Amino acid sequence: MTKRVILTGATGFIGRQTIPFLLRRGFEVHALIVKNTTRILGSEIRCHQVDIFDYKAVSRICKELKAEYLLHLAWQGGANERMTSPENLSWVEASLNLVQAFSKNGGSRIVLAGSCAEYNWQYGYCSENLTPTEPESLYGECKSSLHKLTYKFCQNQGIHYSNGRIFFVSGPSEAENRLVPYITKSLLMDQKAEIKHSNRIRDYLNVTDVADALVTLLHSSVEGPVNIGSGQPTSLGELANLIGKKMHKPELIALNTAEESDNKAPIVLADITRLQNELGWKPKYDLENGIEATIQWWKKQNQIMINK
After folding, report:
1. Are 152 and 94 found together in one domain?
2. Confidence band of 289 (pLDDT split at 50, 70, 90)
3. pLDDT over threshold 70, residue 304
4. 3-state secondary structure of 160
5. Is the pLDDT of residue 307 over 60?
């Protein structure tokens, strides 16, 4: 029997990485895209030019496809703007419309891309069942609200639902203004990379593993929120020094270890008990080989630019 899935955010940092895992699991992938990107995504999936904010078009495609699965990854772009953008509210509304249209047409399994920003970071160690969802940002509040509304809706409709709460991600194709690309590109140009808040501890996972975990969650019967992270604490200084070491330019790493007056979220770490025990999932990359793969990707991109 064909396992038909509607995928949103297919051209995004995480979304494009989910496609090989979906195909491997035997899914028939239908990507909702704004522009024709079949050439980028490959011919093995079926692309539909549908604006998620066009509610009638979303309703039509859900009625046409009658998909059993929905993997909804699309959201407001631009990591810095995302935290405060009023567009977050529009994304909640559009996502709820998509969930409803999907459910009306035979849908039975939904996985939404959640975020560690849903948690109160002052607790440090984030557990799905214990840590309060008291977001500081508008983005986190919108993600948390979407989860709660979808959870109740799916319970009433008899739809299986899970929220993959993604922590910190690095890997190929990450936005250039993010930490790992910033450090890597600076060193490629023999420029110093200054790392602010280098004592902050975060939970990083390679984007390929994040994609694999999301598809594993989609293919399972696990319900509710599930943290997607490594469970391994890494300070921003350690991360930067690792990149410096791998690129043989440790002298270009400049760490700012000054204490922060507000002591803002010194630790954000995922409890991955559900991910490990209920899904039986393990990452393929550790921090070191994940960073190595990312550096090699950026070196290749840099060489392409030089040769143009």
Report:
1. yes
2. very high
3. no
4. strand
5. no
Match 């950026």 to its residue by tokens.
298
Is 210 in the same domain as 95?
Answer: yes
Please give the pLDDT value at position 301.
87
Both tokens assigned to 106:
């035979």
Query: Contact 180/170 with Cβ under 8 angstroms?
Result: yes
Q: CB–CB of 94/32 below 8 Å?
A: no
Residue labelled with tokens 């000054």:
258
Q: Do the beta carbons of residue 285 and residue 141 sit within 8 Å? A: no
Q: Is 269 helix (H, G, I), strand (E, B) or coil?
A: strand
Residue with tokens 């709820």: 96
pLDDT in tens, 245-276: 999 999 999 998 765 545 679 999 999 999 99
Q: Please say whether the beta carbons of 30 and 62 come within 8 A.
A: no
Pairing verdict, β 3-8 and 168-170 = unpaired
- 81: which 2 tokens? 């703007």
Domain that holds residue 51: 3-169+204-228
Q: β-strand 125-126 against 193-195: which pairing, if any?
A: unpaired
The answer to whether 229 and 283 have CB atoms below 8 angstroms apart is no
Look at residue 141 and give its three-state secondary structure.
helix
